[in-house]
Amino acid sequence: MTAGRSKTGRSLLLLLPLLLFLVGFFVWPLFSMMSQSISDTAVLRLLPRSTEVLAGWDRQSPPTPEMQAALMEDLKAVDDDQALGDMVRRLNSARSGFRTLMSKTTAALADPASPPVDLVSVDKRWEKPEFWIAIADALSPLTDRNLLAAVDLGRNADGHIEQLPPDQSVNRVILVRTFWISALVTFACMCIGYPYAIIAASLTGWKRDLMLAAVLLPLWTSLLVRTAAWFILLQEQGLINDLLQWLRITSAPLPLIFNRTGVIIAMTHVLLPFMVLPIYSVLITIPKNLMPAAASLGAPPLRAFLRVLLPLSLRGVASGGLLVFISAIGYYITPALIGGPGDQMISSIIAFYATGSANWGMAGALGVVLLVATLALYSVYARLSADEPGRR
Amino acid sequence: MPTRITRFAFATLAILFLVAPLVAILPLAFTSSVILTYPVPAWSMRWFIELFTADAWKRAIVNSLIVGTGTTLLATTLGTAASLGLRNRGLLLRGAFRTLFLLPMVVPAVVLGVGMQVLLARFGLTNSYAGVIIAHTVVAVPFVVVSVTGALAGIDERVELAAQSLGASPATVFRRVTLPLAMPGVLSGAVLAFATSLDEVVLTLFVAGPNQRTLARQMFSSIRENISPAIAAAAFLFIAATLLIGLAVVLSRSMLARRR
User: Fold this and answer.
1) What kind and span of H or E run contains A335?
2) Does domain A171-386 have CATH number 1.10.287.3610?
3) Does residue B107 lie within any of the structural domains?
4) Where are the domains of chain A?
5) Is B7 a domain residue?
6) Could you give the ipTM of this predicted complex?
7) Residue B158: exposed, middle, or buried by beta-carbon count in 10 A (0-12, 13-18, 19+)?
8) Out of A36, A229, A363, closest to residue B235 by CB
9) Which residue, among A34, A378, A26, has the nearest Cα to B112 in the 3D structure?
10) Contact B107/A239, CB-based, under 8 Å?
11) I need a labelling partner for B129 at 20 to 30 A (CA). Which of A165, A265, A353, B71 fits?
C-alpha cells in the first residue's frame, strides 16, 4: 500500500507546520504558565550551600555551626537586591519576622569592620528551629502555595490545608463574582436570544434576512468598537441618559457606567449573537408543521411550546448558553472599560498580577483555575454539538 | 392578533438593541467638539485629521497594518496547509489534531497572554513585531482552519479523480482543481485572520512593547485614559471597513454562484 502510505505521509507533512507552530506557541505557553504557578525557586536559587547542609538536618535540634556558616556564605554571595527581596518576601509569608531578621543579618554580614562569627551572635532568633524549618520548607522547587491561594486556601504550620484568614480571602469572591456575572449575562442572552431565534426561524424572505443581518453585523464588528459604543452611550451625558430624561422617566442621570448594570448590558450585547445563532441553527431543522399539528390536536400555544418546541430546541439553547458562559468567564476588555472596581472579573485580576505586580506565580495559578473551568465547560459543549445535524 | 404585535415589537426592540449602539456612535466621529456627547455642535473632519496626523494614532494604524498583514500571511499559509492535511479521512488522530487547531479560539485570551509573555521573554521576542505576529497568528489560525475545511468539504472528490484519470499529476490536480475550488474558503479565512488581528487587544497588551501599539491597543488605552472623539472616528473606520468587507464577501459569493 505505497499509495496509501504516501497519502498519509503527505497529509502529515501538510499538518506538521501548524502542529509545530501551535505546540511551540500555544501549548508550550500554557504549560510554562502552569509551571510558573507551581515553581518556587526564589529561595532555592540564592541558597545553594544551605540546601546541601539542610538536607542532613533533623528539623528539631538547634542549628549546627555548619548550617549557620553555609547560610552566611550564601547570603554574602547574593548580589541581586531584587532576588533577595523576593526571597525575603517568600520567607516572611511562611514565618513573620523574617523581614526584620534578614535585614539585620545582611547588614551585619556586610559590615567589613567586625564580621560576625555565627548567626546566633547577630540575632537570638537564629537559635530557634522554626526559622530554619521555614527556610528548609521553602527550598523545595515545587509548591502548591499559589494554586491553594488561588482558591483562598493555605497550609498552616503543620502543613495541613486550611482556609486563609478573611482579609486574605479575595480570590474566591472574585471567582464567585465572575461566575455570577457570566450567569446573569447568559440568562439575559437567553431571555432575548431564544425568542429572537424563534421569531427569526418562523419568518421567511427579507424579514428573516434582516433579523439575521442584525445579529451578524455586531458579530463582525470589532469588540472594541462595540465596547467603545456602549461606553459612549452609557456615560452620564450619554444618549441613553438623555433619552430617559427627555422622556421624563428619570429627572437626574442614572449611573449606568462603571457599575454592574453597564457591564451586564454591554456583555449581553456583545455575546447575544453566540446565543442566537446556535438556537437558530437547531430551530430551522425542526419541521414547521409540528406546532400547527399540536394546535390542531387541541394544545394551547403555551402547552404546545412546552411539549413540542422547547424539547426539540433544548440542545440549541444548551449549546448557545454554554458558548456565552464560556466566553463570558474569560472576558477582560468589557469589564475593564465599562465596569467599576467592584465588577472586575478573574481575567482582570490575572492581568493585574501579571503586568501590575509581576507576581507570575499567582497569575499562573489563577490562570490555571480559569483554564480548567473553560476547558471543562468546552468539553461539555463539544459533546453537545458533536452530533448536531445542522452544524455550520 | 395580539401575539403578532408583541412578536413584532419584540423583534424591533431586539434589532434596535443589536444595531443602534453601532449606528449611534457614527455621527460623533464628525463632531467639532472635544467631548463625545450629543448634540453635536458643528460638523468637522478634525478627528479624522487627528487620526491620520497625530503621531500615536498614525503609528498605531501603521502597526496594525504591519501586524495584520504578517498575521494574515502566516495564519493563511499554516491554516490552509493543515486543512488540506485534515482532508485525509484515514489519518490517525484526525479528531485530536482538529481539536488542537480550534482550541486557541476557546482558551481565554488573558490566560494565553500570561503564558505567551513568559515564553516570548525566554526567547527575547517580547517588544518585537515577530512576537506580536506570532501571538496574533495563534488566535487567528482557527478561523482559517474552520473556513478552509468547510470549503474543502464542499468539493466533490470525483472532480479531482476525473482530473487524475485524465493524466494530471497530483501537483497539477491541486493547482488547477483543488485550490481554485477552495479559494473562496481560503480568502474568507484570510479576511477573518486579518480582522482577528485588527481587533486583538489582550494578547497585544501582554506581548507588544510601546513600539508595536496597534490601533485596537491604542483605542483601548485612550478609552481608559483620555477619551476623545478620535475613538469615534476610529470606530467609524472599523465599522465602514466591516461593511465593505461584508459587502465584498456577499458580492464574491453571488458572483461565484452565478459562475457555477
Assistant:
1) helix A333-338
2) no
3) yes
4) 48-139, 171-386
5) no
6) 0.88
7) exposed
8) A229
9) A26
10) no
11) A353
The DSSP result for chain B, as a single string, is -HHHHHHHHHHHHHHHHHHHHHHHTTGGGGBSSSS--SSPSSB-SHHHHHHHHSHHHHHHHHHHHHHHHHHHHHHHHHHHHHHHHHT-TT-TTHHHHHHHHHGGGTS-HHHHHHHHHHHHHHHT-TTSHHHHHHHHHHHHHHHHHHHHHHHHHTS-HHHHHHHHHTT--HHHHIIIIIHHHHHHHHHHHHHHHHHHHHH--HHHHHH--GGG--HHHHHHHHHHS---THHHHHHHHHHHHHHHHHHHHHHHHHHHHHH-
In a domain, B224, yes or no: yes
CATH number for the domain that contains residue B88: 1.10.3720.10
Report the alpha-carbon distance of residue A292 to residue A322 in Å, rounded. Answer: 31
Closest residue in chain A to residue B11, using alpha carbons only: A196
What grid cell was written down for A246?
427627555
Give percent of chain B above pLDDT 70: 97
AA letter at A89: R
Q: What's the total number of domains in chain B?
A: 1
Burial class for A343, CB neighbours closer than 10 Å (0-12, 13-18, 19+): buried
CA distances from A19 to B75, B82, B94, B134 (A): 12, 8, 12, 14
Cell numbers found for residue B137:
497568528
* pLDDT tens column, A20-38: 999 999 999 999 888 888 8
How confident is the model at residue A266, as a pLDDT?
Answer: 94
Give CA B223 to chain center in angstroms.
Answer: 21
Which residues from chain A sit within 8 angstroms of residue B188, using beta carbons?
Answer: none
SS3 A62: coil
